[in-house]
Amino acid sequence: MQAAAVVLLSGGLDSYTAAAMAKADGFSINALTVNYGQRHASEIESARSIARWLGAARHLELSVDLRRIGGSALTSDDEVPRDRDLAVAQIPATYVPARNTVMLSLALAWAEVLDVRDLVIGVNALDYSGYPDCRPEFIAAFERLASLATRAGVEGARFRVHTPLISMTKAEIVRRGLALGLDYGLTTSCYDPSPAGRPCGHCDSCVLRAKGFAEAGVNDPTRYVA
Questions:
Q1: In a domain, 53, yes or no
Q2: What's CA 152's distance to the chain center, in Å?
Q3: Which of these, 137, 172, 152, lies nearest to 6 by C-alpha position?
Q4: The domain that contains 9 carries what CATH number?
Q5: Could you give the C-alpha distances from 60 to 110, 151, 168, 207, in angstroms and in order?
Q6: 88 contact partners, CB below 8 Å, separation of at least 6
Q7: DSSP labels for the chain?
Q8: Is-above-0.85 flag for pTM?
Q9: pLDDT truncated to tens, each residue of the chain (226 aa)?
Q10: Which residues lie below 8 Å from residue 67, measured CB to CB, with a gap of 6+?
Q11: Is position 91 within any domain?
């Protein structure tokens, strides 16, 4: 019987690659996309296209309105930082409080219902914006929490959170995805797209994506506003 995983699928480059790597490892994909009130909601449609491309067994979309909590440029009308010096060690305004904790908790709940023990998330601890919930320490802590906070865990099941991209550069992620035949034209990676959905080319996400494709020596299929 084929093993199954719940995969967090945002519609971006990283989650697409992580999902494809899980599929290549033999997992059946149960994709979970969360509409949390993000200003870049155009990525939801990208997630739908990616789920179809991957042949996901299921694609569940949930809405959790984090705009009501606020605290982030991604869930408010606050300005999204542009052309920021990514070498400066600081947590940017695009950090969404506890986002990955919320996302993984939803994935864990669905996994328990599906009798699935493997979760997949496309976090990265190298080419990223300094978010605290993208670090290996956070993932290890969440695995411990999963064993304590669920009926399955109390009864002896072990949940595993797979982070196949966590130690990869963005260029390595791009190369791995292309080796798997991925169509990165399906993805959306911008924090502050135009009303038509075109990426800005200047936010952290756009800058890191462009850097990854440039260092991989391949063309980025994204059409930026500027």
A1: yes
A2: 25
A3: 152
A4: 3.40.50.620
A5: 9, 22, 28, 30
A6: none
A7: ---EEEEE--SSHHHHHHHHHHHHTTPEEEEEEEE---TTTHHHHHHHHHHHHHT-SEEEEEE--GGGT--SGGGSSSPPP-S--TTS----TTPPTTHHHHHHHHHHHHHHHHT--EEE----SSSS---GGGSHHHHHHHHHHHHHHSHHHHTT---EEE-TTTT--HHHHHHHHHHTT--GGG----SS--TT----S-SHHHHHHHHHHHHHTS--------
A8: yes
A9: 789 999 999 999 999 999 999 999 999 999 999 999 998 778 999 999 999 999 999 999 999 999 999 999 999 999 999 999 887 778 999 999 999 999 999 999 999 999 999 999 999 988 777 899 999 999 999 999 999 999 999 999 999 999 999 999 999 999 999 999 999 999 988 999 988 888 999 999 999 999 999 999 999 998 887 5
A10: 36, 37, 75, 76
A11: yes
Minimal CA–CA distance to 160: which of 208, 111, 125? 111
Q: Which range of residues forms the domain containing residue 54?
A: 4-216
221 within some domain: no
Q: What distance lies between CA 56 and its chain's CA centroid?
A: 16
* Structural domain count of the chain: 1
Q: Which amino acid belongs to residue 191?
A: Y
- Hunting for tokens 């002896």 — which residue is that? 156
